[in-house]
Amino acid sequence: MKDYKEYFILPAKPDEVYAALTNAATIQLWSGEPAVMCTEPGSDFSLWDDSIVGKNLSFEPGKKIEQEWYFGEQEKPSIVTIKLHPHKQGTSVELRHINIPDEAYSDIVEGWNDVYFASLTEFYANE
Fold it and tell me: Using CA atoms, how far apart are residues 62 and 100, in angstroms rounded to an integer?
């Protein structure tokens, strides 16, 4: 099991980034795929046509999202925490993903950087 922590700067306000991460229709706009998402703790979510599935744990509007990501039969849950901080260029996103299975680590890190946050950055650049 491995942990990953990274920071991203997005050119939008924290409330806008929060909406982009929690509103299914907005997720579909920047990801290009249908999404299942709501801000009800305990609800299931699905991104990128079920490439990413899990359970929503907690939400602080405009500030924090906590999710459990599923990787088959895993002893410890894989937890994703996304914290949003105001930044002079928009929002500083603090990403922490813990308990990533070793065999999935490089794919997950690549996904966060080259797909998830790359897509979000492109979405805001085109606004």
Answer: 26
